[in-house]
Amino acid sequence: MKNNFSDEINIRKEQELNRLTDRVKSVSENEINLLGTVYEQIARILIDLKRFNEAIENYLKLEEILIKKEDTFSLGRIYSDIGLAYTYKKDFPKSLEYYHKSEEVLINDGNEIALGTTYNNLGGAYSEVGDWDSALNYYNIAEQLFLKSNHDEGLGATYNNIGGYYIHNEDWKKALSFLMKSEEKRLKCGDRKGLGATYFNLGFVYAKLKDFNIAIEYYLKSEELLLEFEDTFMLKALYQSVAEIYQTIGARDKTIEYYSKLSDLEQRTGNRIGVGNALNYMGIVTSDMGDFNKAIDYHHQAERIRYEIGDYSGLVQTLYNIGMEWLRIKNAEKAVDYFILAGYIAKKNNMTSELQKMDWALREIIKKHGEKNFMKIGESHYNSWVQHAELEKKNPK
């Protein structure tokens, strides 16, 4: 991940945003064409910077200008852009509202590519709200418009989305058929960013079909493109998926490699919950490899993070895992200490599912000490553990 490069790009975008904002102040209200152009440029930069509310504000200023000009094509296109901004915000009712506005304007305009894009976006929004039948209907309309206009980029996106519909319905054969069409169109028009998503979906389908070698091949193609376009959201899902495949086929070194990539990416994006999860997985896999001391080390790293961020469900899981590692090393005393600590936290926080998982380990301990004494011992362990954890926070290694 090219963090310095990414930061540099964002700095340049902020500088351009400041320049355009100053430019708006100097433009006369009579210069509506220039004013509209600047508002659109500002909105697009704000979308890139993930400042969606501000982007929408600028699009709405542009909307007023386009209504005055009676520019129906541009208005329909901008409504679709506003819909996309609401999609990024996960406000799907508003997203659908603006996509339908775009449809209403463009349907009489005659621009098949713009209308096809709106229908494709409508399909995506309906899939997000779980209305998959409506989603497929709009994808099919988009496909016909793109076929009519021979628009490969639009077809590549639509075929990928139809593939997603069949993935949702677990019809792997049809999913593959449409994803292969998407790959063909996106290669033809050079849509490298779109190819990253199509390759990811192809990897997912082949994994479901248990053709793991081909799945990994597509995932690795996707990884290269997702890194190029710095799509951190999809990269995280990819690293998790590839790690799980390697774990399934027993390639544990590769499993650790991809969980490590996931941990690094979660760290760079500031998602400490994700870092804790990845480290916990690394501990489990390392334990399967028979390196119990290394597994304890990974679990301790996860333990520190989960304590610091207050992820007590994850913390209980990690403490239990550490107890299991000590049991495998045949140090029953330390194993019991960690089981008591995990059980005490789980009981204090009414964590039913966590307690059920640990029941086999806690049952005999509670039987030996009694429930009341078990909680007293647990409280003592917990207070000592918190004191030690706070010292580690102040003096990290």
Task: Give an overview of the whole structure.
The protein is mostly helical and 397 residues long. Helices cover 86% and strands 0% of the residues. The chain has 19 helices and no strands. The protein has helices at residues 3-26, 32-48, 52-69, 72-88, 92-106, 112-128, 132-149, 152-168, 172-189, 192-208, 212-228, 232-248, 252-268, 272-288, 292-309, 312-328, 332-348, 352-369, 371-394. Helix 2 packs antiparallel against helix 3 (52-69), helix 4 (72-88) runs parallel beside helix 6 and helix 12 (232-248) packs antiparallel against helix 13. The longest helix is centred in the first third of the chain and has 24 residues, at 3-26. The chain is elongated and about 80 Å long. The chain starts with a helix and ends with a helix. The relative contact order is 0.04. The model has no long low-confidence stretch (mean pLDDT 94).
Mean pLDDT: 94
Poorly predicted ranges: none
Please give the largest β-sheet.
none
The geometry reads as elongated
Order of helices and strands: HHHHHHHHHHHHHHHHHHH
Strand content: under 5%
Distance between the termini: 26 Å
Enumerate how many helices there are, as a single number.
Answer: 19
Helix content: over 70%
Radius of gyration: 27 Å
State the main characteristics.
single chain; 397 residues; mainly alpha; 19 helices; elongated
Fold blueprint:
Layout lengths: L2 H24 L5 H17 L3 H18 L2 H17 L3 H15 L5 H17 L3 H18 L2 H17 L3 H18 L2 H17 L3 H17 L3 H17 L3 H17 L3 H17 L3 H18 L2 H17 L3 H17 L3 H18 L1 H24 L3
